[in-house]
Each structure stands twice: as C-alpha cells, then as structure tokens.
Amino acid sequence: MGVVNVTPDSFSDGGRWLDPAAAIAHGHALVAEGAAILDIGGESTRPGAAPVPAAEEAARVIPVIASLAGAGVLLSIDTTKASVAEAALDAGATYVNDVTALRSDPDLVGLVAARGCTCCLMHMQGEPRTMQDAPRYTDVVDDVRAFLEQRVAFAVAHGVAEDRIQIDPGIGFGKTTEHNLQLLARLDELVALGFPVVVGTSRKSFLGRITGRADPADRLPGTIASTVLAYARGAQVFRVHDVAPARDALLVAAATLRAHGA
Ligand code: HH2
Which of 23, 51, 88, 103 has a 20 to 30 A CA-CA distance from 7? Predict the structure, then answer.
C-alpha cells in the first residue's frame, strides 16, 4: 500500500503532493514501483495536526482519486469522515482506511456496509492532538487485540461483511517505542484474529528514536526491517511511502520463507 498524502502538513512528506497534478504523478510512480493499493489522504494524523473541514479534505483528494481511478490498483481513502469517504467511493475508491476504526463519524459504518467496500479498522489510543502525551496500557497487545475485536463486532453488527474487514495495530498512534515494538514482536497474536493485518511503520518516530535518525527521510532501513519482520509474523498489507524498496524486501523475505517451508 503506497501512501499519497495530499496535505500541507503530513509528518514526513507534508506539502510535497498538495498540488493535485503532483499527487497524481506520485500515485502513478508508486504503481510503477509495485503498489497494489494507493492510500490517498487529505488530512494529516500526525501528533498535533490541525483538523481539516470536510469540504477542504474532499477538495484535496477527490480530483486525485478520480484521476487515478484507471491506474489498475485499489484506491483507498484515508479519512474519518463519511462525506469524504462517500465522494471518494463515487470517484473510484473501493477501500476505506479510518484511523479511528469507525468511531468518529456515526454515518461511516453504514456507508461502508451499504457500498460493500473493504475497510481498515485501526487502533488508536486518544486522539491525534494528544495521543503521544502519556500512552498507557495494561498489556498493549492484549488491549489492542480486545479493541480490534470490539470494533470488528461493531462493524459486523452494522452490516459490514467479515471478508471486507482488515485490522491494524496503529503503530505510533498513542504508543511509546516499547509499545510499538511489543506490537510488532507479538503481531501473530493479532493475525490470529483471522483478519488481514495492515501495518504502517513507514518513517515513523520510533524508528528514529531507535536509530538516532531525526529526519524521517533517513528512516528507510528501519522501515524495511520492521516491515519484513511484520511480514514474517503474518501481516499482509504494508503501508509505506517508499514502495520499490519495500516490494523488493518483501519479495526476498517471501522467497526465503517459502524455501524454509519447502
Ligand atoms: N499511519 C498514518 C496514517 N494513516 N493508516 C493506517 N491504516 N495505518 C497507519 O499506520 C497509518 C494510517 C501516518 O502516516 P502518514 O500518512 O505518512 O502521516 P500523516 O498522518 O501525518 O499524513
């Protein structure tokens, strides 16, 4: 899953793809690099990010989605708002990535159910403005698993088909470095729930804290290491900014694990 941030303020690439033509070209480039899904977002979720009104968010992403609709990959809309998701689905998206797991907008679950699109339910403790202040868990993996089970039950109770649901531990969303590492190390416990697991470690701060790389652009090796380990633990979707290196790393990891199984 390649990231297309049509925002001025995303943590690693804010402003680079705000111009629709630049975002569209970037989307095509990520497809050429091997992305199977493009995740297109018009509102940053980084700690402290300012909320974006729905009309502004839609104005950023809809032209990009409409233009990429013929690119031959799945298009995901990264939003928490039903009105933005609906316009995105009308423009050609078939996947809704909601970092609040259908908790922000009461109309979003009904839309996902009615349209039969795939959705990603992600764990987040708190809200983006304050989520990194003092995240606390009894046991982070048990707590995230219980949350995801509850959100899956909510979606199914509102008519979302089980085979349309994917789950995501929400790396970096209300989590310390140790919490993120626990989730990656014990990812098999989330995989055991039986839904495809999405993991997004790309360029995130915990990689910088471990490696001493303050600039997100320098965190590609950390992204690759964590992505490959998540794959080895059973994750199936990898949300990354740098598609070509992630693709190569995953192909080598897959070939190696196949050889082990043979
Ligand atoms: N991470 C980000 C945004 N959306 N969605 C899912 N499902 N999983 C993630 O880990 C995830 C996500 C944050 O990354 P980015 O889009 O690069 O930054 P920003 O939120 O600042 O736009």
Answer: 103
- Does any ligand 1 atom lie closer than 6 A to the CB of residue 171? yes
Pocket test for ligand 1, best of 78, 166, 190 (most atoms within 8 A of CB): 78
Domains held by the chain: number: 1
Nearest CA to ligand 1 atom 18: 10
pLDDT at 262: 58
CA 109 to chain centre: 18
Question: Percent of the chain scored above 70 by pLDDT?
Answer: 100
| Domain membership of residue 96 as a residue range | 2-259
- Whether this prediction's pTM lies above 0.85 is answered by yes
* Of residues 214, 240, 215, 170, the one with CA closest to residue 225: 240
